């Protein structure tokens, strides 16, 4: 029996090829994703472990958050005076002060920003080549004094920098000119950052604002002393104002942050792989259904010769498992290629995984084979069961008996019930105010509506295809009639083929609805809240030196200029509970540049010195009124009690002023000295032209390339661009599922052409031309693809609508249906059909007429 | 219709070889043949004698290895696939032994298919006459699987007639039918010649079927070995026996039906 199975497998290898391709692609996606994320994970593990000091001391600050992202000029620091206190401790072999601060800007002589692309930070570091330094000086000299920097080799190479070249560093205190004195090369993985090394004094003065402070103090343990022992000796000396961590803890903290991020990426990629797998199932199911149908006689003969049902069943399943095995093996190989490709891709983005081997862990291999074999055997199960039901008599009968599935009535009832439940869930998701619950409802609704439509597909095929192809006979004559009827010949096969496409297109449609709704909502929000003519801001939202605001104020044509600061902090309630928030500082005139809806008081009164403007939600929750005292914990750790001068209506919309307290800049700087601007609002002076002022500002700010001057429409474009980027990324990932769906259409057509060889011979004999025959096959493909597109768009619009209503609760009120995308999907589906038909149509038209007529 | 006296189709020194070298089979061996317009011609011969090959060559479905084929005043050897397809579509009708109809089309759609492919307007009166003659009026909306074998073959004959081709080729059109349905189909072919003025060429190995024809051509080993005008079943059977004996060959013929 096994021999017979193997022989039949080999005999059908041509017809199994497309199924094999589907398994291969799905497995490759799964395996590639796992290898890629594992590789990044293990590379960074090693990086963190090798670069962490044995024991490090950092400032303990709950409010400020992670200091490496903070560029407000108020970085939590450790005084250098701690060094002699810990240096003499037994077991401390070496003690070094370290300055490391992200968010600086490096520019060339033309004020062009030099830095990693894609948001990777530019980090300023004091040059201190200790044992844990991730870089070695490979050419030039170490930085000395104010005027020299060493830059990492990857950045030097990418921007074609040369030793001695004049550069410009923009830090908290402003910009200063430097010369490139040396080049440092990563001895481990380059995580994508741009590293700028300064001598220690310069780093302290320019980056931290004071000499005599560090961002951390690193200790090296002496031989025979464990990191824990050293930590336990250091901790009591420095006291509770500082965190003392071992290398393991530091690495673990760093890895945890990265790990969360990595696992999000991994889950997303695996999600797309899952969709591809799902689509692959329908392709394999179709192939095996057709193989079984074609082999009715052969299987009947096996039964007549005494093979039991189980044996027939098993022979089909073994064939499927064999396919899965081969597909998984090839998929694993392709997965390695895919992972290497992804690594090369991110290397172009700056993250060079150097000297790191590809991580192929055994769970990856298990997952690959599990996916491949499971998918094929599960998809072959139904056809196998049907095969085992073939009576021995089938060997003697004509093989042309139509397939029988679940009775139509049962199918209709099951499908409609599932769809009704799905609709209920989606409506529930759209109306539920509880976001978490609504999300679950949405997920359930999406899944069930998909299942419902797949079940109903064969029943929908007739009416939908009649509607789509109704005009074919009139336009294409008998070729149109034939193609439309051929598509309807086996509604189950047609709908299985179309559902594969439906899944991908439904996701495209729903996400495009969500994306454009979000963009439209932001547009509305920008119109509603931004009153300023122009806004100067850093694209990453980070603060910038005060020289920027000064330059703005000095630009001719500007009228009102309002400078804003954002710092971390917390609102402290009467009972001492803290609510973390951003504390906003503003110059006078905020209400002229931002539209704020007031409950009581005024913006001017709220932002008067010693006063605060607070949100209505917080005021209500804590019984605060105009004149009430409100306590704020600032990021410096200082606590201030201010007077409520205004209460604004809490706007929870994205971009809206939520419950963040707003105070005068002068007040903010009393508690957070040196807090930097992160936004400058500009109204043009009466009579001045906005365009002229904008270009004047752009010129004035040329030496600060990190900040941009934007008006409202620039902001809208910016947000739209970001959403489009994300959508395109998602469409790119969905492309795999769509490619597999196209393979499915090719598969179905190819098998149909084989099945209908005699018919094709007859048509050719009675005078159908080759071109007409090709058109017939193409039209059938187009009909199937459009059927998939119609179902997919219907489903996707439903999902999109439900998701948009759900997001509306989060403030994304506008609904926008991107008709251009929808039309593109329909046209694209037709093109997909045409492409899929290329091979099968050619094959059909090349059939020899006489051979075809004589075909059994 | 082709002018009388002028043959509807002609084969001149037709040869057809399959394979090459030692295994080569000469299916047709320098055959000269004329198909008279407005007559019913039967081609007879034992299995493997080259009947189908001859028909395929005359109908433009196959290319002879040597020789010329004329349909009316068109010589086929120089025609490409497009021209041959158009010739079959516009000037020739086919009835095959089995699988004559497209399962997705109704009887009526099958009948008008060649005309539809050509983009011609159907001649309603003629179509009605054909349908009437073949007694198919109440079957037009049926799909092939709802028709009996005899009805299916009648639809095929109707399709062949509908476009008023110069020539109708039928390859064992009754081979799969019981004797009554077979007789019906043959009767209709006969009437299409007598009443509608068609030219019909039928391949058969059944002497009874051949007796419906005006002329029987006998084929053996790829050559026309004899001809018989106004045949009867007995005369055909007799003639087959005679040249079998003369040729010293063993030929198994099906037992006459009934
Ligand atoms: N495609 C082919 N390849 C090789 N030999 C063929 C082919 N078609 C027919 N023949 C051979 O040509 C001869 C005539 O065949 P055919 O015309 O089909 O005979 P008939 O129709 O009289 O039974 C036979 O010997 C047959 O084996
Ligand atoms: Mg034959």
From TrEMBL, chain A:
Keywords: Cell membrane, Membrane, Transmembrane, Transmembrane helix. It is a multi-pass membrane protein. Pfam families: FtsX, MacB_PCD. It is found in: Cell membrane. GO terms for cellular component: plasma membrane. One of its GO terms (molecular function) is transmembrane transporter activity. Residues 272-392, 733-848 form the ABC3 transporter permease C-terminal domain. The chain crosses the membrane at residues 268-293, 320-347, 359-382, 412-431, 437-461, 498-520, 729-754, 779-799, 819-838. Residues 17-235, 495-699 form the MacB-like periplasmic core domain. Belongs to the ABC-4 integral membrane protein family. This is ABC transporter permease. It comes from Streptacidiphilus pinicola.
UniProtKB/TrEMBL annotation, chain B:
Coiled coil: none annotated. CDD domains: ABC_MJ0796_LolCDE_FtsE. The keyword Transport applies. GO terms for molecular function: ATP binding; ATP hydrolysis activity; transmembrane transporter activity. Residues 9-246 form the ABC transporter domain. The keyword Endoplasmic reticulum does not apply. GO terms for cellular component: membrane protein complex; plasma membrane. Keywords: ATP-binding, Nucleotide-binding, Transport. This is ABC transporter ATP-binding protein.
């Amino acid at each position: 029996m096994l021999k017979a199975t193997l022989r039949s497998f080999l005999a059908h290898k041509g017809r199994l090829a497309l199924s094999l391709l589907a398994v291969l692609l799905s497995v490759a996606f799964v395996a590639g994703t796992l290898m890629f994320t594992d590789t990044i994970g293990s590379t960074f593990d090693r990086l963190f472990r090798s670069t962490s000091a044995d024991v490090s001391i950092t400032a303990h600050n709950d409010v400020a958050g992670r200091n490496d992202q903070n560029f407000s000029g108020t970085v939590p620091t450790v005084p250098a005076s701690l060094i002699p206190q810990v240096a003499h401790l037994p077991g401390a072999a070496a003690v070094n002060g370290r300055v490391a601060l992200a968010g600086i800007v490096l520019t060339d002589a033309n004020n062009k920003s030099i830095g990693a692309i894609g948001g990777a930070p530019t980090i300023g570091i004091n040059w201190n080549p200790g044992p844990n330094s991730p870089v070695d000086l490979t050419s030039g000299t170490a930085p000395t004094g104010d005027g020299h920097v060493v830059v990492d080799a990857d950045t030097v190479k990418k921007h074609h920098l040369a030793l001695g070249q004049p550069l410009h560093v923009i830090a908290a205190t402003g910009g200063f000119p430097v010369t490139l004195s040396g080049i440092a090369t990563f001895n481990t993985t380059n995580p994508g950052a741009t590293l700028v090394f300064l001598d220690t004094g310069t780093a302290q003065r320019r980056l931290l604002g004071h000499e005599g402070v560090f961002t951390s103090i690193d200790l090296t343990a002496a031989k025979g002393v464990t990191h824990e022992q050293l930590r336990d000796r250091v901790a009591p000396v420095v006291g509770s104002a500082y965190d003392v961590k071992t290398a393991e803890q530091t690495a673990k903290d760093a890895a945890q942050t990265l790990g969360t991020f990595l696992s999000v990426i991994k889950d997303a990629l695996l999600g797309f792989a899952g969709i591809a797998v799902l689509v692959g199932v329908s392709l394999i199911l179709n192939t095996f259904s057709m193989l079984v149908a074609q082999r009715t006689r052969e299987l009947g003969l096996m039964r007549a010769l005494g093979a039991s049902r189980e044996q027939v069943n098993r022979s089909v399943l073994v064939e499927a498992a064999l396919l899965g095995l081969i597909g998984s093996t090839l998929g694993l190989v392709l997965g390695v290629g895919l992972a290497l490709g992804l690594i090369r891709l991110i290397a172009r983005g700056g993250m060079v995984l150097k000297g790191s081997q590809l991580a192929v862990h055994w769970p990856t291999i298990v997952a690959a084979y599990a996916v491949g074999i499971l998918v094929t055997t599960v998809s072959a199960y139904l056809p196998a069961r049907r095969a085992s039901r073939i009576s021995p008599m089938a060997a003697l009968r004509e093989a042309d008996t139509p397939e029988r599935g679940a009775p139509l009535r049962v199918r209709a009832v099951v499908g409609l019930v599932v769809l009704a439940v799905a609709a209920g869930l989606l409506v529930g998701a759209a109306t539920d105010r509880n976001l978490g619950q609504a999300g679950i409802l949405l997920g359930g609704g999406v899944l069930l509506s998909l299942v419902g439509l797949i079940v109903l597909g064969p029943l929908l095929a007739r009416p939908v295809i009649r509607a789509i192809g109704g005009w074919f006979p009139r336009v294409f004559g008998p070729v149109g009639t034939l193609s439309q009827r051929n598509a309807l010949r086996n509604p189950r096969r047609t709908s299985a083929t179309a559902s594969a496409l439906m899944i991908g297109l439904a996701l495209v449609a729903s996400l495009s609805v969500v994306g454009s709704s979000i963009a439209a909502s932001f547009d509305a929000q920008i119109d509603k809240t931004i009153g300023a003519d122009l806004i100067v801001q850093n694209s990453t939202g980070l603060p910038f030196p005060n020289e920027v605001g000064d330059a703005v104020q000095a630009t001719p044509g500007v009228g009102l200029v309002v400078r804003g600061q954002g710092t971390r902090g917390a609102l402290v309630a009467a009972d001492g509970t803290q609510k973390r928030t951003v504390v906003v500082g503003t110059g006078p005139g905020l209400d002229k540049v931002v539209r704020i809806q007031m409950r009581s008081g005024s913006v001017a009164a709220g932002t008067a010195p010693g006063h605060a403007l607070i949100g209505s939600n917080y005021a209500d929750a804590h019984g605060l009124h105009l004149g009430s005292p409100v306590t704020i914990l600032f990021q410096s750790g200082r606590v201030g009690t201010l007077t409520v001068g205004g209460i604004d209506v809490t706007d929870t919309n994205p971009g809206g002023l939520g419950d963040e307290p707003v105070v005068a800049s002068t007040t903010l700087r009393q508690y957070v000295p040196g807090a930097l601007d992160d936004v400058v609002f500009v109204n043009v002076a009466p009579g001045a032209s906005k365009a002229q002022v904008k270009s004047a500002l752009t010129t004035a700010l040329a030496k600060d390339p990190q900040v941009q001057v934007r008006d409202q429409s620039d902001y809208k474009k910016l947000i739209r661009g970001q959403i489009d980027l994300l959508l395109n990324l998602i469409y790119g990932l969905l492309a795999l599922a769509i490619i597999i769906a196209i393979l499915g259409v090719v598969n179905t057509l190819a098998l149909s052409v084989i099945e209908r060889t005699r018919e094709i011979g007859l048509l050719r004999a009675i005078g159908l031309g080759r071109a007409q025959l090709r058109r017939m096959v193409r039209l059938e493909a187009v009909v199937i693809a459009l059927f998939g597109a119609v179902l997919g768009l219907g489903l996707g619009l439903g999902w999109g609508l439900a998701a948009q209503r759900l997001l509306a609760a989060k403030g994304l009120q506008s609904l926008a249906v991107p008709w251009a995308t929808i039309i593109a999907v329909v046209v694209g589906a037709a093109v997909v059909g045409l492409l899929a038909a290329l091979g099968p149509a050619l094959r059909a038209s090349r059939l020899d007429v006489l051979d075809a007529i004589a075909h059994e | 219709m082709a002018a009388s006296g002028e043959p509807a189709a002609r084969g001149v020194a037709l040869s057809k070889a399959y394979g090459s070298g030692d295994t080569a089979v000469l299916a047709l061996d320098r055959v000269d043949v004329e198909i008279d317009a407005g007559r019913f011609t039967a081609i007879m011969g034992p299995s493997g004698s080259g009947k189908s090959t001859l028909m395929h060559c005359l109908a433009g479905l196959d290319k002879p290895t040597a020789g010329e084929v004329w349909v009316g005043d068109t010589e086929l050897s120089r025609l490409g696939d497009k021209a041959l397809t158009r010739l079959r579509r516009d000037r020739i009708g086919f009835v095959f032994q089995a699988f004559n109809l497209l399962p997705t089309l109704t009887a009526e759609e099958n009948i008008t298919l060649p005309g539809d492919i050509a983009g011609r307007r159907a001649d309603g009166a003629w179509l009605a006459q054909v349908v009437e003659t073949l007694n198919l009026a109440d079957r037009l909306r049926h799909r092939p699987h709802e028709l009996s074998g005899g009805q299916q073959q009648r639809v095929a004959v109707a399709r062949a007639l509908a476009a008023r081709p110069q020539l109708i080729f039928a390859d064992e059109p009754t081979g799969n039918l019981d004797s009554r349905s077979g007789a019906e189909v043959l009767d209709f072919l006969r009437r299409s010649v007598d009443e509608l003025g068609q030219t019909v060429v039928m391949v058969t190995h059944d002497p009874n079927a051949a007796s419906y024809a005006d002329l029987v051509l006998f084929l053996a080993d790829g050559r026309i070995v004899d001809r018989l005008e106004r045949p009867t079943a007995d005369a055909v059977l007799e003639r087959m026996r005679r040249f079998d004996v003369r040729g010293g060959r063993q030929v198994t013929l099906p037992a006459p039906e009934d």
